[in-house]
Design brief:
Helix content: 25-40%
Number of strands: 29
Oligomer: single chain
Number of domains: 6
GO molecular function: RNA binding
Largest sheet: 5 strands, mixed
Structural class: alpha+beta
Keywords: Nucleus, Ribonucleoprotein, Ribosome biogenesis, RNA-binding, rRNA processing
Radius of gyration: 38 Å
Pfam family, one: Nrap_D4
Shape: elongated
Distance between the termini: 81 Å
Number of helices: 40
Family: Belongs to the NRAP family.
Strand content: 5-15%
Strand order of the largest sheet: 3-4-7-6-5
Protein name: U3 small nucleolar RNA-associated protein 22
C-alpha cells in the first residue's frame, strides 16, 4: 500500500503538470470552462476556519493573472508580465461578452465568487494531511501483519475473541517466529458483530482470517470531493480491505453467512490493531444506516504528538472489508427476485413452496460489499475526470442532510453526465431515456440540474438506470417488482436507493424544490447563497408543519414477520420500514412529505456487537394545505367490498372504516374524523397518525407528544370562562363577528331617507374582522354579563369607516368638517336605534387633551342586539386637500391668496399630525385590512401565525405600546409572500410562528425590508422591491416598505426605537434557543415561551386582577381571581345589573395617563392582552445631577451638597425624584394598583 500511495502522489503531481501543459495546447476556436480547475487548485492549497485568507488569496491570484480569455494568450500574458512587468491589456469586446455570459450562468458574479470562496474553506487542509498519510502507511503494515486464524466454528471463534487469552498462533507461524523473545501484548476483548440470523451450534461452516489481498483508499477522500461535515463531525477516510476469496464458499450468500464471515474478519483486524503498540488509536464499531450487516471499524487518533498523530486534521479512518470481483459468490444469486433466506415463518398461511420470499434489500447489501472495488474505484467516479463535476459534488455534499441521504451522491452527477439507460421496451413507462447534459457546463449549472432532477423525478413510479457500457445485468422488471425505488449505478451492481424510504425521498424532493425556488428568487430580501449554504435548514419547527415525539418502549408490530426482520437487518429497521409504509398509506395526499427522524447510528465500543436501538423517534409532517384538513377519507365503492382494495382499506383503518352514503348518491368505504370546532381541523393529520400508531403498533396516545394543543391554548380563553359562553349561547368567533358586521352594513346602507347623503362603502379596519386578533371576538349582553366575573367582561370594539357619496355641500373648513361629522353620526345613531330595537348607539368624542380641533376625533359607538360592539368613523376625502393646503401655506400659494394672519408653527405641527392620522386611518388602514384578510383566505396558516406572534410580543410587553399590530401583520406576511417560494410557505401556525421568531432573530433592521403585501404588478412594483431606502427623522427604526408605503414608516413612525428593536432581537434569540433545546429533548413547555423576565426593569407595578376586564386573557391567569366564593355555585351575582362598556380597559387607560404625565421620565412596558403588571425603566440621564431649571419636564429633588462652600459656589443641582414619581403613580392608580 505504501507504494500505491507514493505512486498516487506522483500521479497527482504529474497530473497537475500535465494540466498546466495542456493549457497552452487548446485550439483557439474551442472555449473550455476552467473555473473548476481554478477552484480545484484553490482547494488544493487548502484553507480551514483558522486560515480565512487562503480563499481570498486564491481569488486575488486569479484576478492578478488575468490575461484574456484565450488560453494561449493567458499563459503568454503570465510569462510576459512576470518577466518584464508590462501593464496588462484590457479585455476585448468579445472577451467582455464571454465574461458576461459566464456571469449569467452563475446567476450573478457575486454568487460565483461566494461559491469559489466557500469550497476551499470546506475542504481539508493540505498542510494537515501529512500525518494522515504516514498513519495510513503504518496502518497498511499493521493490517498486513495481522496473524492468520485457522478455520473454526463461528461461535467458538467469537468466544475466543471475547476472552482475554491470546489466540493460538498457527504452527507454521510458530516455526518462523521461533527465537523471537518479544512478549506479545495482552489481547483486548472484542465482540464479533454477527448480524441476524445469528450462527447456531449446528452451523456446518467455519470462519477464518488471512491477510487481505489488497488495501485500497476509496470514497470521497480518495476522489478529493470530501467536504466539511456539519455538527463538528470528523472527515471520513474510507479504507477498503479486500478479503481473500479463499475464505468464502459459493453458498455464502445464504442466511447471512457472508456477513458473518465479514464480521469475524473485521473483529480479527480490530483485535490485532487494539493489541498493537504501533498505532495509538481509539477503536469502535459503526454500522452504516444502523444496519448490523454493514458494520465497519472506525479508528480515531489519540493526541500524542507523534508523527502519525492526525488529530489536528479532525478525521477518522473507516475500515470496510470487501470482496474482489473474483468472489466465489455468483452474481446471479444476488438478483432482486432471489430469495436467500432459508427460514420458516410459523405464522405464515402460505403454501410451503412459497414460504421463502424475495430478499432484494439483503441481496443489495451483498452486492454493495462484495463488489465495492468496482463501484468505488476512482476510475469509475465521474468527479475524478471532470473538475466541474468535482466542484458540483462538493457543493451538493455541503448541503448536509439531503445529500447524506444518498449512499452514493456521485450517482446523480454520473447519470447527468453519462445519461440514462433505455430500459425494457415491454414496459412503456420505461421507454423514456434521459440524455446526458454534455460537457463544458459550470458547476453551478450542474448543481441546478441535479436539484431539478431530484425535484421532478417520480421515484415512486419510475426506476433509474445509469447508462452502462454493456447494458444492465438484471431485467428492469425485477426492480419494478421487488424494489419500491431503484437507482442502478453504471456498473449495474448496486441499487443505490435500496432501503431508502419513499418518505425520505419525498422529503428530499421537497428540499430540492425549496432550494431551487430560493436560487431563482428575485426578492431583494432573500440572499440565495446564505439561504442555501449558510443557513441551518434542519430545525424541526421551521422545517415541518407538525412534529410528534413518539416513545417506542411499547411498540410492537401488529403482524410481526421474521422475513421482514431478516430482510431489513434488525427489528428496529423493520419497525421503521413498517412505520413509514403505514403512515404514508394513511396520510396520503394530506402531506407533501413525511419524515421519520431518529438518532443516526453512532460509534459503539468493540464489546458491543449490535448498534443501539432508539427509544424515541420524531415524525415530521409537511402539509399539503389543499387536502391536509379534510374531514373524510374516501375508499373503494360498496360494490367492491370483496376486492383486494377494500380489504386493504379496512385493514389499514380498522373499526374507523365504515360504509357511508354521500349527497351525490355514492356509497363508499369512508373514514370520518370528528372535530368540534374549526380550529380542531388543524389536528386531523396528527389524529390520523395517532390512530395508525395505536392500531398497527400498539402505541398509546399518551406516548405521542404533539405541541399543537399547547400552542392553541395560548389563543383561547380558560375552560371555566369559555364554558360560560357555550352554556349561555353567547355569540363568539370570527364568523359570527363577520355576520354581525354584514348585517350592520345592510342596515346602514338602507338609511337613504334618513341621511342627506347615501353611504357608499363601509370598510372594516379592525383586527377582529380580519381573523388576526389574538383572541376570537365575543359578544356581550347585559343579561349574559351577569354570568361572567368582572375580570372577564371585556367587550372588544370593532372599528369601521363610513364613506359617503361626494357632495359640494361639505364645508371648506377643517374644524367645521369635524362638526359636520358629529351631525352625521348623531343622525345615524338615531336611525339605528329606531330601525332595530335593542340597538345602543352613542357619539363618542376623543379626549380634548390629545386631539386638536382639525383632527378626526368623533366616532359612533354601536352595540347591536346580538351584543357586538362597533366604532364607526366618517371618511371625507376633502380633508386631505385642506390639510395639504394648511401645511404648504406660503410655499406654493400666491401671495394674494395667502391668509392675512400667518399660521404659527404650532398650527402647522397640528396639521402635520392630523394629516398623518388621516392617511393612516382612512387611506392605509382599509387597504391594509383588505390585503391581510386576503392573505388569511389564501394561506390557511397565516391568521394563526399572526395571532401567535402577537400573543408572543404582547406577553413580552412590546405589542401596541411599542410595536403596532399592523407592523406585526406585515412582518408575518413576509414569511408567506417574501419571495422564498411556495415550498417555504408554512402550512401550520406553529411553523409560521417559528419562522417569524427566526426572522426576528436574524433580521438586520438597519437595512429595512420590502414586503409585497399588495402584489402590485409592473415596473413600479419591481422598482420598489429593488430599493428600500432607510430614512432618518423617525422615532421608529424599523423600515417596512410595501407597494403602498415606499417610505416604510406608516406603521413604525412612532416605534419601535433602537432600544425596543434590540430587545425584540434578544427575546427572539432566547425564544429560538429554547424552542430548539426543548424540541430535541422532548421537554418543551410552550407556555414558558411567553413567561416574561422582569429583572431588567427598575420597578414593576402590580395591578389588582379582579378589576381588570381582560384579566382572563392573561398568559398565567389565576382562576381564583374569578372563582365564585358563595355558598351556591349556580347563584347569580348580586352586584346589580352589569353595565356593558365596549372597549373599556382600565389598565390601558391608566398606562396611557402615566405615559402622558411621565413621558420624559419613564419608559413603560405592558402586556395589553390581559396583563396585570407593567414594568418601567428610568431615563438614565435624569439620574445624573443637573442644574435646576424651570419647566424641566420631570419631578426633581435637590442633590445634597457635601459642604457649605459647595452650596454657595455652585448652583443647586437636582436629580429625578423617584419616590415622588412612585407616589404619584400610586395616587393615579388608586383602586387599581395593588403594589
Amino acid at each position: 500500500m505504501a507504494q500505491d500511495l507514493k505512486r498516487k502522489r506522483a500521479n497527482e503531481a504529474d497530473a497537475r503538470g500535465v494540466k498546466k501543459r495542456q493549457l497552452s495546447e487548446e485550439p483557439d476556436d474551442e472555449i473550455v470552462d476552467h473555473e473548476g480547475d481554478d477552484a480545484e487548485s484553490a482547494g488544493a492549497s487548502g484553507s480551514g476556519d483558522d486560515e480565512p485568507m487562503d480563499a481570498e488569496e486564491d481569488l486575488g491570484g486569479e484576478d492578478e493573472e488575468w490575461g484574456g480569455i484565450d488560453a494561449v494568450e493567458e499563459v503568454e500574458g503570465k510569462e510576459n508580465h512576470r518577466a518584464g512587468g508590462k501593464p496588462k491589456k484590457p479585455p476585448t469586446g468579445e472577451e467582455v461578452r464571454s465574461i458576461k455570459e459566464a456571469t449569467e450562468l452563475f446567476r450573478s458574479s457575486s454568487f460565483k465568487l461566494q461559491i469559489d470562496a466557500l469550497l476551499p474553506n470546506v475542504r481539508p487542509k493540505e498542510s494537515r494531511k501529512a500525518p494522515l498519510e504516514r498513519f495510513l502507511l503504518a496502518l497498511h503494515e499493521c493490517i498486513l501483519s495481522t496473524p492468520s486464524v485457522p478455520p473454526q466454528h463461528p461461535l467458538e471463534a467469537a468466544r475466543a475473541l471475547l476472552s482475554p487469552e491470546p489466540a493460538q498462533t498457527p504452527k507454521g507461524k510458530q516455526a518462523k517466529d521461533k527465537g523471537k523473545a518479544k512478549a506479545a501484548p495482552t489481547p483486548v476483548p472484542i465482540a464479533v458483530p454477527y448480524p441476524l440470523p445469528l450462527p447456531t451450534e449446528d452451523a456446518n461452516w467455519k470462519v477464518a482470517f488471512e491477510k487481505p489481498s489488497e488495501i485500497l483508499l476509496v470514497g470521497s477522500w480518495a476522489n478529493q470531493v470530501s467536504v466539511k461535515a456539519k455538527d463538528g463531525l470528523p472527515w471520513g477516510v474510507d479504507i477498503a480491505v479486500e478479503m481473500p476469496s479463499e475464505l468464502f464458499q459459493e453458498k455464502d450468500y445464504l442466511n447471512g453467512r457472508f456477513f458473518h464471515k465479514r464480521a469475524f474478519y473485521i473483529a480479527a483486524i480490530a483485535r490485532h490493531i487494539a493489541s498493537s503498540s504501533k498505532l495509538n488509536v481509539e477503536l469502535s464499531y459503526e454500522s452504516a444506516n444502523g444496519d448490523p450487516r454493514l458494520t465497519n471499524l472506525v479508528l480515531r487518533p489519540k493526541n500524542d504528538d507523534s508523527p502519525n498523530d492526525f488529530t489536528k486534521l479532525h478525521a477518522q479512518v473507516r475500515i470496510i472489508p470487501v470482496l474482489p470481483s473474483s468472489s466465489p459468490i455468483p452474481l446471479s444469486r444476488l438478483a432482486p427476485h432471489r430469495s436467500n433466506f432459508r427460514v420458516h415463518n410459523a405464522d405464515s398461511s402460505e403454501d410451503p413452496a412459497h414460504e421463502n420470499l424475495p430478499t432484494p434489500l439483503y441481496n443489495t447489501n451483498n452486492t454493495s460489499v462484495c463488489y465495492a472495488e468496482t463501484a468505488s474505484s476512482s476510475s469509475a467516479c465521474p468527479e475524478a475526470r471532470d473538475p466541474g463535476l468535482r466542484r458540483c459534488s462538493g457543493t451538493i455534499a455541503y448541503l448536509g442532510e439531503p445529500a447524506r441521504l444518498w449512499r452514493g451522491k456521485a450517482a446523480v452527477l454520473e447519470m447527468l453526465a453519462m445519461g440514462e439507460e433505455p430500459a425494457d421496451k415491454v414496459n412503456t413507462k420505461l421507454s423514456s431515456k434521459r440524455r446526458p447534459l454534455g460537457k463544458g457546463l459550470s458547476s453551478y449549472q450542474l448543481f441546478k440540474a441535479a436539484l431539478d432532477f431530484l425535484a421532478r423525478y417520480d421515484f415512486a413510479n419510475e426506476r433509474i438506470f445509469v447508462k452502462a457500457k454493456d447494458g444492465h445485468r438484471f431485467p428492469a422488471q425485477d426492480y419494478y417488482a421487488h424494489h419500491d425505488v431503484a437507482f442502478v449505478d453504471s456498473p449495474s451492481l448496486v441499487n443505490l436507493l435500496a432501503g431508502v424510504p419513499l418518505s425520505s425521498l419525498a422529503m428530499l424532493q421537497h428540499d430540492a424544490k425549496r432550494t431551487l425556488q430560493t436560487l431563482d428568487s428575485s426578492s431583494p430580501s432573500v440572499d440565495p447563497f446564505t439561504e442555501v449554504f449558510l443557513k441551518e435548514n434542519r430545525d424541526l419547527f421551521t422545517r415541518f408543519d407538525a412534529i410528534m415525539h413518539i416513545g417506542l418502549s411499547s411498540a410492537t408490530l401488529r403482524h410481526p414477520s421474521i422475513h421482514a426482520t431478516l430482510e431489513h437487518g434488525s427489528p428496529a429497521k423493520a419497525l421503521f420500514a413498517s412505520l413509514d409504509q403505514i403512515l404514508r398509506a394513511g396520510l396520503g395526499p394530506r402531506v407533501k412529505a413525511l419524515s421519520l427522524l431518529h438518532p443516526s447510528s453512532e460509534s459503539r465500543p468493540l464489546t458491543q456487537a449490535h448498534p443501539s436501538t432508539p427509544s424515541t423517534i420524531y415524525v415530521g409532517l409537511v402539509f399539503e394545505p389543499e387536502h391536509a384538513f379534510r374531514l373524510v377519507d374516501h375508499g373503494p365503492a360498496a360494490s367492491e367490498t370483496e376486492s383486494e382494495a377494500s380489504q386493504q382499506f379496512r385493514e389499514l383503518w380498522g373499526d374507523k372504516a365504515e360504509l357511508r352514503r354521500f349527497k351525490d348518491g355514492r356509497i363508499v368505504e369512508s373514514v370520518v374524523w370528528d372535530v368540534k370546532t374549526a380550529d380542531e381541523k388543524a389536528y386531523i393529520p396528527v389524529m390520523v397518525v395517532k390512530h395508525l400508531l395505536s392500531r398497527h403498533f400498539h402505541i398509546a396516545d399518551d406516548a405521542v407528544q404533539s405541541w399543537q394543543p399547547a400552542f392553541d391554548a395560548l389563543v383561547r380563553l380558560p375552560e371555566s370562562i369559555s364554558s360560560v359562553y357555550q352554556s349561555a349561547r353567547i355569540p363568539a368567533g370570527f364568523k359570527s363577528a363577520m355576520t354581525a358586521f354584514d348585517d350592520l352594513v345592510k342596515t346602514i346602507k338602507s338609511f337613504d331617507k334618513e341621511l342627506p347623503l347615501a353611504v357608499l362603502n363601509v370598510s372594516p379596519i379592525s383586527e377582529y374582522l380580519r381573523y388576526t386578533s389574538v383572541f376570537a371576538p365575543v359578544a356581550l349582553l347585559p343579561s349574559s354579563a351577569s354570568l361572567l366575573p368582572p375580570c372577564g367582561q371585556f367587550l372588544p370594539t370593532m372599528e369601521v369607516v363610513l364613506e359617503f357619496e361626494r357632495s359640494a355641500r361639505w364645508p371648506d373648513d377643517l374644524a367645521a368638517i369635524q362638526k359636520t361629522k358629529l351631525a352625521f353620526l348623531e343622525r345615524i345613531a338615531a336611525a339605528l336605534m329606531a330601525a332595530k330595537e335593542g340597538t345602543l348607539a352613542r357619539v363618542v368624542v376623543a379626549d380634548a387633551l390629545n386631539a386638536s380641533p382639525i383632527q378626526d376625533q368623533a366616532s359612533l359607538e354601536i352595540v347591536i342586539p346580538q351584543g357586538w360592539a362597533f366604532a364607526a368613523r366618517i371618511w371625507h376625502d376633502r380633508e386631505a386637500t385642506l390639510l395639504d393646503r394648511l401645511i404648504n401655506e406660503g410655499v406654493n400659494v400666491p401671495k394674494a391668496l395667502q391668509a392675512d394672519k400667518p399660521r404659527t408653527a404650532r398650527e402647522r405641527e397640528d396639521a402635520l399630525e392630523a394629516r398623518e392620522l388621516y392617511v393612516r386611518r382612512f387611506v392605509h388602514a382599509p387597504r391594509h385590512h383588505r390585503a391581510v384578510a386576503a392573505l388569511c383566505h389564501r394561506f390557511s396558516a397565516f391568521a394563526g401565525t399572526v395571532r401567535l406572534v402577537k400573543r408572543w410580543l404582547a406577553a413580552h410587553w412590546l405589542l401596541r405600546s411599542h410595536v403596532a399590530v399592523e407592523a406585526v401583520e406585515i412582518l408575518c406576511a413576509h414569511v408567506f409572500v417574501g419571495g422564498g417560494g411556495s415550498e417555504t410557505v408554512p402550512g401550520s401556525k406553529e411553523r409560521g410562528f417559528a419562522a417569524v421568531v427566526e426572522f426576528f432573530k436574524d433580521w438586520d433592521w438597519t437595512a429595512g425590508i420590502f414586503v409585497p403585501l399588495y402584489e402590485e404588478k409592473g415596473a413600479a412594483a419591481e422598482a420598489a422591491k429593488s430599493s428600500v431606502v432607510v430614512t432618518a427623522g423617525h422615532k421608529g427604526v424599523w423600515t417596512i416598505a410595501t407597494d403602498a408605503d415606499k417610505d416604510g414608516h406608516m406603521w413604525t413612525a412612532n416605534g419601535p426605537d433602537n432600544i425596543v428593536a434590540l430587545r425584540v432581537k434578544a427575546i427572539a434569540k432566547a425564544t429560538w434557543d429554547y424552542l430548539q433545546q426543548g424540541t430535541e429533548s422532548g421537554a418543551l413547555e410552550v407556555k414558558t415561551l411567553l413567561v416574561h423576565p422582569v429583572d431588567d426593569y427598575d420597578f414593576v407595578v402590580q395591578l389588582e386582577p379582579s378589576v381588570l376586564p381582560r384579566y382572563t386573557q392573561n398568559v398565567v391567569a389565576d382562576p381564583t381571581a374569578w372563582a365564585r366564593k358563595g355558598k351556591f355555585a349556580n347563584l347569580q351575582r348580586q352586584d346589580g345589573t352589569p353595565v356593558v362598556r365596549p372597549g373599556f380597559d382600565p389598565a390601558q387607560l391608566f398606562l396611557d395617563d402615566v405615559k402622558r404625565v411621565h413621558a420624559d421620565t419613564l419608559r413603560l412596558f405592558y402586556d395589553p392582552i390581559g396583563g396585570d403588571r407593567f414594568g418601567a425603566v428610568w431615563d438614565p440621564s435624569l439620574k445624573q445631577p443637573r442644574p435646576f431649571r424651570v419647566m424641566n419636564h420631570f419631578s426633581s429633588i435637590p442633590v445634597p451638597q457635601e459642604s457649605e462652600k459647595a452650596k454657595e459656589k455652585e448652583k443647586a443641582l437636582v436629580t429625578v425624584n423617584e419616590s415622588a414619581v412612585l407616589s404619584e403613580i400610586l395616587r393615579m392608580g388608586a383602586g387599581l394598583v395593588k403594589t
